[in-house]
Write a structure and sequence with these properties.
Helix content is 24%, strand content 32%. Strand 12 and strand 13 form a beta hairpin. The chain is built from five helices and 13 strands.
Length: 214
C-alpha cells in the first residue's frame, strides 16, 4: 500500500519535483531581449534627434500628444519635414495607417495622438518666397498643387493650424495657395533649416533602424 501511494504521488507531482538538485536561474541562458528591451519610435527619435532638442524640446514626439486636441495630428496641421536632404514645409491633407505584416492594407486615419500610429502622410508642399510667406509648389505640366506622400520618420515637428494663415489666390493660368506664418512657425522653420545637415542625417539613421526592425 505504501509503495503504490508513493508511486501515485510521484506521478501526480509537477515535473520539476523530479529534480533532486535545485537549479539556479543564473545558470540558465539569459534572454537578450530582456537585457535590451525594444525601443519604441519615440525613444529612437529621442536618441537620434538629440542634437535637435535645442530647436524644439518635444522633438521626440514631433510635438504630437494628448495634451490637448490641438496637439493631436489631423488634417490641416502643418509639418516641417525632411525630403531628399532638404527641410520642407507642408500641410496635412490625409493620413494612413498600415495593417500588420508585409501585405497589410492601408487604411485612412482622421487623427493620431502618436506619430507611430500612421504609416503615410499626404502633404501639400509649400516653398518660402519671403520671410514668413510660403507659396504652394505647382506641378509645371498640370498647373496643379504638388503633393507628397511621406513616412512618419521624415517628420521633424508638427505645427498647429492657427500658426499659419492659408489663402487661395488666382494666377494667370491657375490658382495657388499662400501661407503666412506667425512668428512662432517662421522661427521654427528657420531654425530647422539652419540645422538641415543634422536633421537630414538623423532622419536617415532613424529610417534605417526602423527598417531593420521590421
Amino acid at each position: 500500500m505504501s509503495i503504490s501511494l508513493s508511486l501515485s504521488s510521484s506521478l501526480s507531482s509537477p515535473p520539476s519535483l523530479f529534480f533532486s538538485t535545485p537549479v539556479d536561474s543564473r545558470d540558465l541562458p539569459q534572454n537578450s531581449t530582456a537585457r535590451q528591451p525594444h525601443q519604441g519610435p519615440a525613444k529612437l527619435r529621442s536618441s537620434h534627434f538629440h542634437k535637435l532638442k535645442s530647436v524644439h524640446p518635444n522633438i521626440a514626439t514631433a510635438n504630437i500628444s494628448t495634451i490637448s486636441t490641438a496637439h493631436i495630428l489631423s488634417k490641416g496641421h502643418y509639418l516641417i519635414f525632411v525630403q531628399k536632404g532638404e527641410v520642407l514645409f507642408g500641410q496635412v491633407i490625409s493620413m494612413y495607417s498600415k495593417g500588420a505584416g508585409k501585405s497589410g492594407k492601408y487604411g485612412w486615419e482622421g487623427s493620431a495622438n502618436k506619430l507611430s500610429l500612421v504609416a503615410r502622410i499626404c502633404l501639400q508642399v509649400f516653398k518660402a518666397t519671403a520671410p514668413g510667406i510660403l507659396l504652394s509648389l505647382t506641378c509645371p505640366d498640370l498647373l496643379a498643387p504638388m503633393y507628397l506622400s511621406i513616412r512618419p520618420a521624415q517628420v521633424l515637428i508638427a505645427i498647429r493650424p492657427n500658426h499659419g494663415n492659408k489663402t487661395t489666390r488666382p494666377s494667370f493660368r491657375s490658382t495657388y495657395d499662400e501661407v503666412i506664418l506667425d512668428t512662432y512657425a517662421m522661427d521654427l522653420l528657420d531654425k530647422f533649416k539652419a540645422w538641415k545637415a543634422a536633421a537630414a542625417a538623423a532622419v536617415k539613421v532613424l529610417e534605417a533602424e526602423l527598417k531593420s526592425k521590421k
